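=== RUN LOG ===
request id: a7f3
mode: sequence -> structure
chains: 1
length: 196
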Amino acid sequence: MLQSSFGSGKPEAGCDEAGRGCLAGPVVAAAVILPADYSNPALNDSKKLTEKQRDKLRIEIIRDAIAYSIAFVDNVEIDKINILNASFKAMHLAVDKLEVRPQLLLIDGNRFHPYPELQHHCIIKGDGIFMSIAAASVLAKTERDAYMKQLSTQFPVYGWESNMGYPTVKHRRAIAEHGLTPYHRLSYSMQLSLWQ
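=== RESULT ===
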């Protein structure tokens, strides 16, 4: 069972992103505020869950959360500001959209650009420690996966419906054979020779 809170006594928002290591598509972040005594034994880091488990948890998180939000930063912006800054920007945008203002942010990872007037804690592998971060992980992952599956209908040769834009063999071969799409991250194009 993950921890229900950091123990600060303040309203906490867990924040996480999905898609940071992809060759195509946006980076997607979520911010989630859960009830202080929230309990869900199934909740975990989204990478440790099956697609079916994530989809079920998504419904439960949306139902149970005090507030949640999801934000995208697209591949064009990623190319302009780099993927790390884009990940932080997506988290900031998600926090901006929360209908309830938290007093503490729990960030998955070891770095973050401070959000104005809000305290934060960076927690390495936090999506396997705190429920709010795990919930954000699930929402970001399921939202991004749904988006990439939709995009795959326009560009079926890249296999985005299954690889979600990550650098699988099929994806790398498709880039070598068909080139890049408007959804590929051009800042990664210098690595094309490594993908092939």
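=== NOTES ===
The two ends are 42 Å apart (CA to CA).
The CA atoms of residues 2 and 80 lie 36 Å apart.
=== END ===
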